[in-house]
Records
---
Amino acid sequence: MRYRGELRALPRRRTGGATEPDKYMLEHAEKRPRELGRTDIELRRAAAEEMAFEDGSFDTVVSCLVFCHVGDDAPKALGHIQRLLKPGGTFRFMEHVRNDESGFGRNFQDFVNPVWKRLLGAGCNCNRRTQQAIEDAGFGIDWVKRQKTFPPTSPVIYGVARTG
């Protein structure tokens, strides 16, 4: 729910589900479907690694700025995403990741991460290798793009993956 465009992009021909682990963010997130007149979207309080939907429930799963918070449970959360997807389903993601392309950027992220996640980022880790985690979970990447943003949460990747 952190990315305001994601609900607008969902087709209306199907129902959808969304999760948010934080109670206060969920209350905030519940306003958005109402603003868009989307009564077909069910919101639940759950972490990414604890999504309680039926196997094969979704054609598409969307993740926007989630895996910086998931941490060591990323393999479990990605396993749940695979379980939720129908055969041939897509996983669309937008996540900020570790800057392995720049020694300075990487070192800066590692230096500020302890303070960032506790004081500024609400538990967000600015140095996760999320694309690698997606690939390690058995997803095939259809395409991915990297975009520079502002430190320490640069770069951002966005793309589409499919179950293996």
Note: The beta strands are 16-19, 41-44, 58-64, 85-96, 139-147, 156-163.
---
Amino acid sequence: MPVKSPDPRRRPRITFLMRRLQQHYARDIDTALRESGFSDIRAGQAQVIPFVPPEGRSVGELAVAAGVTKQTMAQSVDQLVRAGYLERQPNPRDARSQLLFLTDRGRAVRAVAAGAGDSVEQHWAELTSPAQLDAHRRFLEKLLGQLDATEPGTDPGPTRKGVRG
């Protein structure tokens, strides 16, 4: 069944379609997290986890990588620290700041979220075709690469070689 945009006289905007896909994706990630015993974290909070590398990052670096404000990231980080997914450690390069690292619980939730994300994409490939899903991914990667190249200072975030939630 075709997706209807809010204005029936227009074809749906790509951003509207992507937002709808994100809603489906987030719902499935939330379900997987709850079923795995992570009922205290939502998909929105789990989206921070892929941006935390083994060497740690500051709140400001996480905010840039995730494309959100430092204040928004600080709020998410505080919740994740309280819930035991992240820990703060002194920054050896800057005594005025701290770096954030995944705890064992954070690494476990990363694995669950990544596995759930793989399952969601597998389901989408079954609903369409693997070739269509790959073509869509290539299109988005190309578009994002072009946008990132024209917007200096943006961080493309984690790649498939790293971890993507």
Note: Residues 104-127 form the longest helix (24 residues).
---
Amino acid sequence: MKVKLGMIKIAEEAAQKLLASDLNVKTAWKLRKAFNILKKELEDLEEVRIKLVNKYGTPDPHNPGSINVSPEKLADFLKEFNPLLEQEIELKYSPIPVSEILEANIDFSPIQLSYLEDIGLIYDDVNNLENLESKDNSEEQ
């Protein structure tokens, strides 16, 4: 699946939330393998971002060890960084059916689920979801 680097960055928090959840071993293993691929891309992206911050930034005299990009240099920074976020890469991992993560009772916002789906980490296995919903409804009655 082809995904933009910026989308991976946006989905990072939701992916980490999923990774920190208690899942069955099979699902956790697939997730770990997929997250290792995502982590490598995120590390590479962060390395480039830091190089650009060092290139366009200046040390913050009030916060030793911190570098700030001034508003005057921000446009130059973004001119180099934004095209990187638009770069499409091929991700090769097996997506996880949503039904496999439902059992973990993880609180996700709809947008977080959308992000995970956009990077191909999860997919909506509708038939299983409908079965789970009808099971839940029958247990409530």
Note: Residues 8 and 38 are 7 Å apart (CA to CA).
---
Amino acid sequence: MQRGIVRIKMTTIYLTSSGEYSSWHVTGAFSTKEKAEEYARQTNSDNDVDEYVVDEEFDPARVGLRMHRVFMWANGDVLTINLNDYEDEEKAFATCNGRGEWDVTVYCYARDEQHAIKIANEKRIGLILEGKLPACAP
């Protein structure tokens, strides 16, 4: 499962609507304000034109996530974990340490340290299963 942050350019759409309260309903959706206004003029005078932003860029902070850096041994034991507010890209990679073994570093958005450790372990297992481990010499 991919947990990366998806950044999408925002798009604006224009909806025409009619009615009030329980009778309110959308009568059309358009890519430009001009097209929506033209439709509203041609259909009837009580069509309103409203502007909506869709595909807004994902902001992890809005949903309570912060970037964490998790450093763990090959067996999954956590060596260090800390907040890492200057990094904005999720990634996971394995490197060789001085003992001829590999370690894993994971940068991930998470609610808290326990959530970050869970994500890091999933990434570590993924690296193992995908064969993306370095060949380390003792």
Note: The radius of gyration is 24 Å.
